[in-house]
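For reproducibility, we list the full input for the NDP complex.
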Amino acid sequence: MFLSVNFTLQKFIMQSKIEHITCLIIGSGPAGYTAAIYAARADLKPIMYTGLTPGGQLTETTEVDNFPGYPNGVTGPKLMDDLKAQAERFGTQVRFGLVTKADLLSKPKRIWVDETIELTADTVIISTGASAKWIGLENETRLRMNAGGVSACAVCDGFFFKGQDVAIVGAGDTAAEEATYLSKLCKKVYMIVRRGEMRASKAMQQRVLSTPNIEILWDSETVDILGKDAVEGAIVRNIKTGETKTLNVTGFFVAIGHTPNTGIFKGQLDMDEQGYLTIIPGSTKTKLDGVYAVGDCSDKTYRQAVTAAGSGCMGALDAERYLNSSGIH
Ligand code: NDP
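The corresponding predicted structure, in tokenized form, follows.
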């Protein structure tokens, strides 16, 4: 009898500790912070869990010259600090933590942070982003982390290599598109393709093949990237002949795909074969009421800070309208 009362009491104490949130934002990139700014101004009292990389992918880049409102450019970390400060100014609570589990089908939705903290939420805005895939070379990581000329975004960083020779790895639509983009800025673009054919659509392939300053290195892999503080070259090997050669490049782009950070929502939300969350076109709505997907986790086409920010704004407006129409807020 005593044991059972004690157990019930313990359960009550545990449950009474569960925090309820009107608007939970998962992820802290431009999409998440913009959602937070709008949600806070609409008095939804948003709480954001940042994930393990507060600020997201932009904290790993250097200059950002294409985000509107910064005529002289801004560094990725500074831009993210500004967005965070703006979200906090209106009352967003930003917390460090990784959402590790979600039950989005229950009402309210149930969320677990760092495997332990349980929360409930009326609305959830998913802005978990996507992570670029990398080849895995030691010098690739080092030069990428030190802003030494290794990048996964030609649109973001191509400008810094104007008039220079660069290399790009990959053979999908992104690599083809980025190689074409770089060819307009750079003197020469080497495209390193690991097979004897490209995965990119025929139209994109045609564009690459007909661009005179793109040289395709078929059946080739990158052995190493050279340079102490900045890229000074890349060693590539032909897989069929074993022949190696050094490319005199100052920029090295990797375009071998992205992985959307959506694994924890598998089985609850619709996603494509690569894991990008499916949203109702023209909105940020997923198939579940009160659950919205914004930014790169649901966008494999544009993947820009400003498009992510725009969809973050849409997510907050969708959440606000849902809360109003369902009488919750
Ligand atoms: P994909 O997965 O389509 O292509 C990745 C490419 O990288 C493949 O060619 C692959 O080679 C290569 N690759 C993978 N790992 C390595 C490695 N370790 N070393 C060297 N090469 C490697 O990714 P994308 O980002 O190109 O495209 C993702 C999706 O987005 C696709 O569905 C694409 O169609 C779409 N997209 C559409 C665009 C548009 O419509 N404008 C623009 C950009 C993307 P292999 O072929 O040998 O596997």
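DSSP finds eight helices and 19 strands in the chain. The pocket of NDP is lined by residues 135, 169-175, 177, 194-195, 199, 256-258, 300-301 (CB under 6 Å). Both points were considered when choosing residues for closer inspection.
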